[in-house]
Specification:
The complex is a heterohexamer of chains A (89), B (503), C (121), D (117), E (166) and F (931). Chain A contains 3 helices and no strands. With 89 residues, chain A is mainly alpha-helical. Chain A starts with a helix and ends in a 5-residue tail after the last helix. Chain B has one domain. Chain B is built from 22 helices and 2 strands. Chain B has a two-stranded antiparallel sheet. In chain B, α11 packs antiparallel against α15 and α15 packs antiparallel against α19. Chain E is mainly alpha-helical. In chain E, 56% of the residues lie in helices and 11% in strands. In chain E, a hairpin with a 5-residue loop joins β2 and β3. Classes of the chains: A mainly alpha (89), B mainly alpha (503), C mainly alpha (121), D mainly alpha (117), E mainly alpha (166), F mainly alpha (931). Chains B and F meet through α1, α5, α6, α7 and α9 of B and β1, α6, α7, α26 and α27 of F. The structure holds sodium ion (2 copies). One sodium ion sits at the interface of chains A and F.
Chain lengths: 89, 503, 121, 117, 166, 931
Amino acid sequence: MLSYAILIACALICCALALNAWRLIIGPTTPDRIIAVDTMYINSIAMIILLGLYQGSAIYYEGALLIALLGFVSTSAFCKYLLRGDIIE
Amino acid sequence: MSLFDHLVIFPVLIPFFIAVILLFPSLNNAINKQRVLAIAANVLMVVVAFVLLFKVKQQGIQVYALGDWSAPFGIVLVADAFSVLMVCLSAILGLAVTLYASAGEDKTGAFFHPLIMFQLMGINGAFLTGDVFNLFVFFEVLLIASYSLMIHGGGKQKTQANIHYVFLNLIGSSLFLFALGTLYGTLGTLNFADMADRIPLLSDNELLITKSGALLLLAVFGLKAAMLPLHFWLPKAYSSTSTSVAALFAIMTKVGIYSIWRVHGVMFGDQAGELANIALPWLWPIALLTIAVGAISVLASQSLRVLCSNLVIVSVGTLLVTISVNTVQATSAGIYYLIHSTIACAAMFLLAGLIQQQRGKAEDRFVVARAMPQAGILGFIFALLAIALIGMPPLSGFVGKALILQSVTNASQAMWVFPLILGAGLIALIALSRAGTSLFWRTNGENTTALKGHPIQYLAIGLLVVLLPLMVIFGGPVSDYAQLAAEQLKAGLTLQQLNEVAQ
Amino acid sequence: MTVLIEVVVSVLLVFGSVVMLIGSIGLAKFPDYFTRLHAPTKASTLGVACILTASMIFFSIELGHLNLKETLISMFLLITAPVAAHMLAKAGLHYKVKMTDSTENQHLAKKAYLHKNPDDA
Amino acid sequence: MELVYAICVGFMTACGIFLMLRGHTFTLVIGLTLLSYAVNLFLFASGGLTIGAPAVLSSNENYADPLPQALVLTAIVIGFAMTAFAVILAMRGRSDLGNDHVDGTEPFDRLAAEEKS
Amino acid sequence: MDKVRNFSWFPMPYHSILLWLVWQILHDFSNGHMVLGAVFAIVIPWIVAPLSEKRLVAKSHIKVLMYTFRLLVDIVVSNYDVAKRVLQSNRSLKPAFIAVPLDINAPVPLTIFASSVSLTPGTVSVELSDDKKWLYVHVLHLEDEQELINLIKHRYEAPLKEIFGC
Amino acid sequence: MYYFWVPFLPMLGIIVPLLTDRLSRSACALATALLPALALCLIFLDLPAVFAGQVFSQSYEWIPQLGLSLSFRLDGLSALFSLLILGIGLLVILYARYYLSEKDNMGRFYCYLIMFMTAMLGIVMSNNMLQLWFYWELTSISSFLLIGFWSHNSDARKGARMALTITGAGGLALLAGIILLGQVVGSYELDVVLNSGGLVKQSPYYLAILGLFLIGAFTKSAQFPFHFWLPHAMAAPTPVSAYLHSATMVKAGIFLLARFYPVLAGTEEWFVVVSLTGLFTLLLGAYTALFKHDLKGLLAYSTISHLGLIVLLLGLNTELAAIAAIFHVMNHAIFKASLFMAAGIIDHESGSRDMRKLNGLWKYMPITATLAMVASASMAGVPLLNGFLSKEMFFGETLDQSILGSMSWLIPVLATIAGAFSVAYSLRFIHDVFFNGEPKGLTKTPHEPPRYMRVPVEILVAICLLVGILPQDTIGPLLESASLAVFHHALPEYNLAIWHGFNLPLMMSGIASLGGIAIYLNRKHLFKFAGMFPDIDAKVEFEGFIQAGVKWAQKVTDKLETGSLQRYTFCLCFFALLLIAPPLLDLETTKGSLPSIPLNGAVIVAAILIIAGSLATVIWSHYRLIALLMLSLVGLVVSITFAYFSAPDLALTQLSVEIVTVILLLLALYFFPQITPTSKNRPSHFVRDLAVASLIGCIIGSICFALMTHPLDSISEFFLANAKTGGGGTNVVNVILVDFRGFDTFGEITVLGIAALGIHKVIARMRLSMQTKDFNGRLWAKDKYPLLLGVVSQSLLPLFLLISAYIFMRGHNLPGGGFIAGLITSIALIQQYLAHGVDWMAKRINVSYHYITAIGLAIAGATGIGSWIFGRPFLTSWFEYVSLPWIGKFELASALVFDLGVYFTVIGATLLILASLGKLTTKERLTVGER
Ligand code: NA
Ligand code: NA
């Protein structure tokens, strides 16, 4: 049952990712695209956790952790860029 | 293991540690201390390189297994006659360049001495390594150092030339990795000797894929070596960068040539079974075209540094010829010529710097300008270098040229090589005699304001120039050594031999 | 692994991913920028937390000892997601993105914008 | 699986190379980054693809080829250093030459200048 | 540096504890890691201390926990709310901006407050006025403006005010 | 046996004039002359043996690989030439002492002259062909310096360059010839080569060798069509002309023909080419000489003509002719040297060399006039002078051949005509200069030269007379031994008597003399006739030719090097494509034998994301920010791909690097236009680029596919087997990085460190304008440091650091390591910069990042060297399991220290890069002076 659940979850997250990609591509504004990428970061955390569950391996945990940390940095950098142009000032 | 047993890695580690030391606060801001340390380090490197050379000559090939892991699992440094010779050459150039720059050029931008050291580390590593991925790493070390050095002193031209140089080489690096992936994917190993052992055992399909990878490497090395049609970056890059950097760069193309020799001349050389000499059909026309186009550009050159850059291209073509001829004799001729052309071109670049310094706005362009305050000594050095670069006696150029011509025994080859090499010599003669007459003889008035050369600059040039007649006077021993290097190179090294030597 | 735990883990997984999918649907279908901004907060809070909890339970059983590592990710997300959303909202304001006409109090958006861009009055 | 992977690598390579054939430094940097992704994936795949067997020793029997991974790691770091340098150099180019064309002049500027003269 | 800080073994005691705990979470509580974690829990604050500003200290730890719990519950509840909105037609949405007047203005409580607002699906903190008197919030579906403002102030701002005493 | 030192004495003498330059002029000249005089004495000491037919030769190995040896010989031919070189050389030294003015740098002049003398001696005494060539080229170089001695004079520069170019080209041809000859014979030693005539003539290379040698000889000896450089070399000071262009350099070509006579001569080809070239040159020179108004010009063309005569003689393939040729070499050298010197005196004392101005000098300088008249009489071939003897022999020899068959009579007729012209120009030399009324428009009144300036001329003229009257007693033995050296066997009968009775040659002489007088008398008509032809100035033509060559070369170079990086990149890509495509075309299938992994939906989604992301990056590459977003999407998916295919380390690294890259690009983008200017690229270029990019993509994809599906026998098993036992870690990738292939990592962090230094360097001079608005024209927001971002970033920092410590510590056994940890730390700090700004950070962090880089590198390097203490090679790792009470067993490993070096290097480098870039817009930015 668990493996089915994982597969279902995986499929759902894949759909979510596809929808994010759709938003990323149609925009229409740059902030929209940044939201899309940000959401993709979060969805990929789920994806990696699911991968770890599927393989029964805890080795992917750090990947998820890192995405959580870095996704934030990336999004705030992009936003800062939109607001100020100069992200380190 | 005594310290002496670690000698092979010294040419890599000395510049590394000196560079790192130079970055620390107490030295980073004290240019005079930096100079002293850098010069001392370079002298030490020359000594080490020559000690290593004699060691190799007496005891044979030296292998240094890094991390105590034997080949093919660990990385090994292989000091054979050829690689050690190249290390000596780079040490000499490094010393000359450091001396020259210590007259003041090192102050025109940050981190000059550390970067030169890193550059030397990269060059020496590339010469010594026996591992193809490690070669990539050292290529990158020397490239990134050269990117940084090329812009030393600043100026629009440098930036412009550097952009071209950097982006082309970045693509080159990507191609290098594609090629490495391909070779690893079929051969399953990275050690030169092990790869050479495995190449003849490849099956049909893998054979063709490996061939693709190997030929892709040719493009990569060719870009570094500035062979046609990948030479475009060179004239602008070498002629716009600062004097000492340009002089050091004289050996950079030779790194490409060296790698072609190692990989396509030996690994995919005579013993490679079905993949034997796959690069030769390409190298022949390329070599001849490189000479031809280089020579045409030499004739077209309007300033001394551009001229000298184009002479570098001609020398690359000439070396490719010796690779293409693919005999021990040709290889040894090529090695002799390589030393000669590197030293002569480097010295000419340094001289061009002095000339530029003394001619004011006219720089080194072939136009009428006021006379240089030190025209006499500069003219004398120019004449010597011109003679060497043209390939006329009594300096080493003629020995190299004659050796190469002698090595072309096959009539159909000779029909192309003789006229091209001799013709290129003639064009160099025409161009350099025009250059010399307009730089030194077509003058109007005296120039008293120009900056005279610093004695240390003359010392640097003299160090290089004096080698040219020495290479003729001691032509016997030098060419004997080149012969030894060529024999070792051509004989190749199996993994078993490598590991036996390492013990 | 007991069936109960398996059921719990499975339910958490499916529930979490449904929440995340809903968030992404929102991102895809909502009419304007500010409404879309609400979607990722959904995904990054409840959705991912469920999946992480599932993973936590699963590995605690699998490895035979307590495994709380995944809480760390949740914690990070709880701290960072609102700030990311805030930054995105600021960017949206700055960009003067189009809002659906049905949005109430649009003057407040303009007012907020003028706080940070007084020159643009 | 391998086919899809290869197609992706090929496609990224093509995109990267195409961007590197453009005329503005920033575009080139983006192309370079894309190209290095492709290079890394290519180098990584040279030892074959393995799922669910990281080269971390445990009771497993089967492991992914660790060597290409180590090579790719080195390549990533070097690629980062190179990209960083390229970006800064591109900026320097813009500062020194006044525009961000790789040749230091916009081609249409050059054309306009030719027409004028 | 503004002024030379006096050296202290535990410049950030809360952080030290948190770091130690996190280290244990990451390493599944072994003896060796308790020691190593302690080392990092002490050393990292030394490094970081110069980079952090004056810290507020929570008055009541119980209230902190209660606040956290309430927030988590709210997240779950409002998630359900928003899920409905997502699956309904766009036309039924009534998005709006609201301006929440602020009583707190210290950076940390303010941040926690704004974050709490954003964390509960359906509301996002958009902008803080320069004078820190207003928080502009975007609401996905607004039924009654004043009620929502009151709710936010009551549920989040009031407890924070108590916790930090400002 | 003294001869061996002869070439070395002048060589030593090269520096003598430079050293004695500061002394008086006479002392300098005297010192200069000393060593050549000594050399001359040495030759004289060996002369008796040479006359006795002995051939000395001695050889020392020099560069055996090349076949070059230090090898000299002294036989009759070299003795003859050495005597000329040294003897006339000494006279020229004396002459030049008076000729050169105070302004001229005498030391330099003598230095060049002695250099030239050394080179000439080397040519004639070499016993090794390569050594001969060595000296041959030295003559070209030293003559270049001598001709261009008055370098302020444009004619001198151009003349020197022309001479160098022509003789240099000839030298190159000669080198080719020598190498071919050496390969045919198997030795470069003349002893061997000269005895291999038969072998050479049968060789298929004979024609090539002959051609190359002749080009060498003809260029040097100014034979048609290479003759034109010689008249322009007259821009040289007259002592140089007297030496180089009469006695020595131009004779080098003749010497070469004579030296290799036994090897190359005697064939039909030799005869046709050599004799016809000689004949034509003879006529051309004689004819042209008549019309030259410049004294030295006349002498130059006369030299060309006489050289033609000698070449013609050598070409006739009879031994008597060759003897005549050698004889004439001597005679010509003597009378022509004296004539040049006389011309020099005239020029020196009257200020002009123009025969239209110089008239009636007899009155002003009777002694010089007498000497010049005797010498030109010798040149004209008047009896009782040496010129007469060799000319008679020449006429005789032209009669004696029949190789042209029925047209053989043409040769003596043409020879006579040439003789007549030679009489005519000699007459002109005498009459126009010394008689023919009064001088016109001279700047100074002519007078006799200083006493000793005339001495060399007197000596030479005396020799003319002496040889002319007593040939057998004076020159006989020398000629005989020289001829013997040429033929290498017994000589035919010949007679050096003055009087041979009334015979055809005498008649030809008579006809020539009368004809010459007739020509001279009718010179007005002839001048008019000659004036009808355009006056071809070889210098202008040659310069024009070279200029055209340069122009053409520039055109070609401009075509090739357009300065367009796009073109160069295309070349690189296309070339790479050309190289890699062909082998793959032969490949039947790329698919290997391995079974493929089944596909699943997630992978398809990832693939779609990658492809869409890449495509979007390309399509939106003009909107740079959007391209960047797309790029970060691709980067994210690539990281996950790595994770999926069992490479967690790679995934972590790729992720962190990707974020840093994005931040870097964002920092940079601020200074760039936000939208790429639409390029005016031609559509064809677009298609071209698209095609090459797609093809490369296809090929790389195919190779990638092939590699994945082929089984691989790799060395990786070793790493898996030894990571734990030999490297002390279970994360094999990390063990490879820090241990098995630690040297790669060592290089890699060096690259990173250098990049940081380089970037620091590049930034230091950057001046970029800050944009006040974004690309849509919006002003930037005023809120520099959003409050929420600041608070959260600050509170996250310790957690970030803890996680980087976590990643660092576990690296050896689990995914992680120093590099990733370093990046995480850097990103955490960058986040602080982002949230709080540079000022805020500068107040709190007070270290230069490049010191951190240096510390990191030093740690890594020191760890590597540490193993030396234990007698192990660089970077040998060490690890030990330690057990402590309560804590339990844990591992200590040197790899961890190495990794610490990596960690610091990464932090230093990354922050150096990003922070310096960030500071660019603030007052903390780097300035030029900062280092
Ligand atoms: Na919310
Ligand atoms: Na900035």
